[in-house]
Please model this.
Amino acid sequence: GEVIVEPLIRTTISDDRGEEPRYVGYAASELCEKGYGIEDVIGLLWNKKLPSRQESEILKRIIMISADHGPAVSGAFGSIIAACAGIDMPQAVSAGMTMIGPRFGGAVTNAGKYFKHGVKDFPNDIPGFLSWMKLNVGPVPGIGHRVKSVKNPDKRVKYLVDYVKNSTSLHTPCLDYALEVEKITTAKKDNLILNVDGTIGCILVDLEFPEYSLNGFFVLARTIGMIGHWIDQNNQSARLIRLYDYLINYAVKEEREVPERK
Ligand code: ACO
Ligand code: LMR
Model:
């Protein structure tokens, strides 16, 4: 008789059983033929919807603007150290990728989540929101930067905010809320600006992307940069990196004799 086997996994996004992959039903080649772009594939595979043209333009800019931020940041630095140790591309990129977390690049999801919470539960009470965050979460995800500040603004943030607000008709309650939060935090400390993670997190919430997808935008974008750094180091045949002693504070015990074993 017929044997019924329980499926091992359930998928709702893609299917390769025909001649080519279908993303949420659409053939990949037909998307190419009809002029869709990588942002539209992201919309399909991460949100199961084809973005409108306006939404695609925003997604494209988010990825372009987050693709790299030079060699000094945790992710690129991790990939560069690995590249210089002779590690192959996938592993070197994953070394950089490992750095994406709550302090660097991986605050997008929680920024979106908590600013959305602020819009809902503390709509006209930003001090209340900040006290709640301090008590329940810690540093506000999406706020703060090591080098960018009111005096040294982050052009990427300014550009994205300006683009979304002045060149699109997107309704932006989450972004607007975060910008109000920034006014209060920067009054306390100059570098407590709305950062790239916070800005893209809020825009993505306003675009109704699912919460779990948000960090994916930084991960995807920064992969472009990390691959670039790996290629760059290899093109230069860069040597193994070893930290010079002057870059290390050896806060250690003085040399001393090992006692006789009792
Ligand atoms: N919310 C509240 N207070 C903050 C925040 C924040 N997000 N960030 C820093 N502070 C406060 C600290 O409590 C500290 O206060 P104190 O001087 O009274 O002790 C002061 O500001 C300085 O904090 P540091 O941790 O020394 O700042 P640092 O420059 O090391 O940190 C960082 C930068 C890691 C980005 C920090 O601001 C942070 O954790 N932000 C939240 C996470 C985040 O959004 N990360 C993404 C950054 S953008 C990117 O990676 C692409
Ligand atoms: C980045 O995009 O990597 C950052 O904003 C972090 C940084 O310190 O520049």
Remarks:
- Residues 68 and 225 are 5 Å apart (CA to CA).
- DSSP finds eleven helices and three strands in the chain.
- Residues 69, 73, 146-147, 196 surround (2S)-2-hydroxybutanedioic acid (ligand 2) (CB under 6 Å).
